[in-house]
Amino acid sequence: MSARVRDAGPNTGVAPEFTVDPAMLDAISPSGDRGGVVLGSGLKGEPLTVSALRSQPTRIVLVGGLYLARQVAMRAMATGAWVVVATGRPAAWQVLQQAAGSRDGRPSPLVQIRRLSPVELPRPSEDAPLLVVTDGGPTPQDLFPPRSPWQTTVYVLPYLHPQAGTTANAADLVLMQRLPAGQAELAARIWRLPPQMMRQLTTLKDDQVVALGTNLWRPLRLVTTQKEQQLLGPVRRGD
Length: 239
What we know:
The longest helix has 13 residues. About 13% of the residues have low confidence. By secondary structure, the chain is of the alpha/beta class. The chain is built from seven helices and 13 strands.
């Protein structure tokens, strides 16, 4: 049985199944459990999967580069989720529409790339969960807070900022790539991390991430499929 990264809540560790067009699965080529979002592998090579799309509003904070954020979005697409990206750099996210392909010569409706302003969102459901990505810098506006079941909002933080503490503390799951010493010290203050965890954040390799949550501290290694590499390039820490 695959190991799972668990977050707090009544649906802890449960990865529901969704339906998705076979062409989408072929484009993304995800690995691991169907229905769960595969984050990477553990120290022993076991796949680690998170139930990021679940029957309650969910917040995820990503501290790191665009590579990680876009890979998480692609993995959510592979489970059948709608993806809406609110960003000030839309060109950086066009790769999601490329991955989703087109229908009748038009971009797939499964992916929407928007400006950083409020818009009406698709209505999420168990059969069509919704992942909203807010790529608004280190102090993001809470334009699309998760208010309904089956909606997950992901906040992409290029680095930790003291004013992001409220957003960070409200997260059900935090994924952090390598941080410089000053950033790691701020992380330790925000999440009350002991010194050894703070130091570990400064020594992560380019393909390593720490998953942080309630009673959760799980280092993992990002794993990229061949088709993801074609779209995103090699695993990296930066953008």
